[in-house]
Backbone:
């Protein structure tokens, strides 16, 4: 019966993430989406930390360990009521224009056109305030149409492996810490759970920095590949040297959380929102929740598979080498996650090169009109 209850709980909880990503995507424009969603997504790591502390506090008592499930359920239920009563799902619902996805590019195009017509100091600054229709009145897209959006499959598969790594750490890190010697000391289950929270502390910072870099470069896949590639050797360093001292354990764990959680957070938030509002869906913001569900649902499969594979790999094994094959599995998963995005990375690099070239030409046009034709 516990397995059936877990399935029901997971089914209903899984409906929340696509919806909230769609809501945040409706409120945040593309130019700052990675940074803002990176800050917003830190709530997942904060929840992991608090959940881990609650579970660690109740793990030593046979009579009260079930409360580690009750407390989060009460919080989720209470916040669900608050969100249902108070959250406006779109800016249009409260009479506010939706955020522009490309206002700067539109203004630059108008400026270039006006300068080319010898009106270098005057150009039309009036702009459309956006479609004030309620997006809820626009029909969504089908599952297959969302799946056909370029980039959805690559990011979904990449998230499968990235989330496999993150959730294996989330569920198995306390057990791993409990089985090793750190600076000559073995920590009990409660202390191991407390130590494991430093992985999520690094993940909070990594989510924000990863989103900020994605905003600055416009290259989501490139940033994800860089973070994933860095996490591979860090996994080996953590396994090999994390037990040398308590300080080394915390430091390497934080840095590892920084690089492994960054891509996971970016893909589940800003990337999902970008793909769900891309030109391929013709501005249909209702596609956002469907795209987010596909990407995060695929990632959740990895989150389920990772701890299960870990339990199989460590079954019947004891001693310091118990988790050796698990870390090799995690390194392989992080590598595959990065490889899935290589095609998109090359496409982003070509686009970045074109943007730099166009920006250079645009500035020369501006200066030539302001300073005279001799500037060119």
Residues:
């Amino acid at each position: 019966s516990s397995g059936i209850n877990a399935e029901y709980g997971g089914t209903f909880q899984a409906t929340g993430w696509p919806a909230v990503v769609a809501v945040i995507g409706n409120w945040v424009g593309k130019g700052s989406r990675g940074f803002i969603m990176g800050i917003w997504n830190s709530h997942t790591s904060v929840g992991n930390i608090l959940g881990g502390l609650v579970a660690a506090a109740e793990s030593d008592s046979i009579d009260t360990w079930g409360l580690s499930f009750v407390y989060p359920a009460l919080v989720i239920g209470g916040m669900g009521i608050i969100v249902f009563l108070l959250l406006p799902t779109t800016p249009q619902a409260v009479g506010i224009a939706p955020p522009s996805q490309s206002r700067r590019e539109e203004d630059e195009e108008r400026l270039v056109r006006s300068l080319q017509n010898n009106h270098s100091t005057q150009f039309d600054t009036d702009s459309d305030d956006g479609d004030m229709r309620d997006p809820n009145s626009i029909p969504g897209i089908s599952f297959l149409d969302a799946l056909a959006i370029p980039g959805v499959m690559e990011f979904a598969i990449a998230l499968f492996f990235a989330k496999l790594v993150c959730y294996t750490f989330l569920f198995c890190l306390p057990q791993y810490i409990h089985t090793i010697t750190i600076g000559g000391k073995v920590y009990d289950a409660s202390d191991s759970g407390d130590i494991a929270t430093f992985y999520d502390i690094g993940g909070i910072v990594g989510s924000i920095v990863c989103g900020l870099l994605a905003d600055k470069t416009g290259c989501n896949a490139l940033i994800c590949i860089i973070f994933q590639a860095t996490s591979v050797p860090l996994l080996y360093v953590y396994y090999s040297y994390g037990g040398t001292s308590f300080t080394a354990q915390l430091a390497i764990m934080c840095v590892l959380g920084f690089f492994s959680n960054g891509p996971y957070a970016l893909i589940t938030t800003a990337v999902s929102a970008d793909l769900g509002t891309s030109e391929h869906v013709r501005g249909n913001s209702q596609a956002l929740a469907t795209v987010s569900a596909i990407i995060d649902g695929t990632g959740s499969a990895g989150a389920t598979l990772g701890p299960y594979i870990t339990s199989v790999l460590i079954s019947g094994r004891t001693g310091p080498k118990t988790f050796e094959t698990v870390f090799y599995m995690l390194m392989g998963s992080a590598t595959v996650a990065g490889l899935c995005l290589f095609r998109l990375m090359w496409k982003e690099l070509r686009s970045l090169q074109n943007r730099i070239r166009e920006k250079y030409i645009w500035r020369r046009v501006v200066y030539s009109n302001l300073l005279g034709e001799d500037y060119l």
